[in-house]
Amino acid sequence: MRNISPKTVQKIAMTAVWAGGFITVAILLLIIIYVLFQGLPSISLDFLLTAPQGGLSGEGGISTVIVSTVYLIGVTLLILVPVGIGAAVYLAEYAPSNRFTGFIRYGIEVLAGVPSIIFGLFGFVLFVTALHLKFSILSGALTLVCLLLPTMIRTTEEAIKAVPRSYREGALALGCTRWQTIAKVVIPAAIPGIITSIILCTGRAIGETACLYVTMGGSAAMPTSLLSGGRTLSLHVFYLAMETRAMDKAMATATVLIIVIVVVNAFTNWLAHWFYVRMNRG
Amino acid sequence: MEVTLNKNIESLPYLDNVKLRTRMANLYYNKFQALRNVTLEIPSHAITAIIGPSGCGKSSLLRLFNRMNDLIPNTRVTGDIELDGKNIYEKSIDVVDLRKRVGMVFQKPNPFPMSIYDNIVFGPKQHGRTNRNELNKIVENVLRKSALWDEVKDKLEQSALALSGGQQQRLCIARVLAVEPEVILMDEPCSALDPVATLKIEDLMRTLREIYTIVIVTHNMQQAARVSDMAAFMMMAGDRAGELVEYGHTSQIFTNPRDKRTEDYITGRFG
Fold first, then answer.
1. Residues 171..230 of A with a Cβ closer than 8 Å to B: which?
2. Which of A167, B16, B156, B252: CA 20 to 30 A from A108?
């Protein structure tokens, strides 16, 4: 190594780094282009607005699937967001640093790494069977909440901890209670981070398949209540690919899925930027 | 070092109206003792400066008066610290009420990430004032008092973070005034500001003295000499921090210090 000049080392390093970046982007583009190429031709307004017919042919569209997905995500976020923010506020602002909270933190870390199918089995045993919620949107949503809470709590806690100490001191010195300080200064200042964490969870929820397979069933019918079964876009892709011959429809559904995720991400960036601008400029 | 003395010094009646008092006050962070048997009386409607080298316990002393030290885990306070003759470390004292009466301005300007208007009405709103007209009056009143009104009256809805450092600090002072405190504690309020902004804050302090009791921690000797009526010199020696070496009228401290250490420090011969 001693004989190689620093400039050569730099060249080699740059090439390696550049190659890493290139491979990542290339793989990503390859997947997206392939799916879009296969899926776009089958997408039409008709496809989006008719219900899947079921059966081996895989005929029909994805209207009920879209409704199920939106329904599921809505219910999930409704439970996930308040519980997640509450836990994050507790951990970031109130929890003393002792063995107990250390244990909670450790538990959250571990849970974040548990495969989703394990949460699925847990959801099946608890929600579907023991609580008699059956294969339903509610069972699926509750399972997703369990799956996503660790991520939600961790990212929200980071966002809250990133709020400068000086804001807290400023509010407390004005004679605000701890809760006023948290509710009116700390959480608003952490909103961009919290939104990012919500959208991150939404993205994961949209893509989740395994744990919903065992908690939502796979009914392609239009959901009518929290206790209806349902099928999300990802589940639909799974069913179409594994149980029908309609690979084109699977690709079309996958295309819709990718577009949804891209839109959600773009929306997140825009929203976070909007909040940033609103708070930092005039 | 050349110092300019406060001309008003002799005309003010001192120490027959004590606002804040400490008696044998000790402060510990865990085992570290940050204040040692500090005893002093701070008069109302005057500016009292706490001076001394870094780490000597100036800020710790200042934060005793609004109990901001409480926020640091494992702190312990002994001795008496009184506001208007009442011990503020008694169990019956509500810290939230205390901090309404004893406001604080920090070293680094810390406006909240919201509009100028919202920064000022923040305190009053949290304390239950909701009438829009009343709030508007408060905003104009305190912005005028803090000499910021003319600069910001047309952009009250703009983010406070867009203001310059000096404006932000005056906004923070206005924000404190909006809560109608009796005492204003200032923790090196000008150390992050340029000389022009510093002078503006000092002018502001002189006008505020008529209404409030001001205690300021400063590194800047000239500043202490320029604005303060009373001065307290603190020191650390070795690992012994938090000792009040000398306390008296600013003119006396700067022209005729009784303690050799004070003299060495103010003449720059320290260390």
1. 171-177, 180, 184-185, 188-189
2. A167
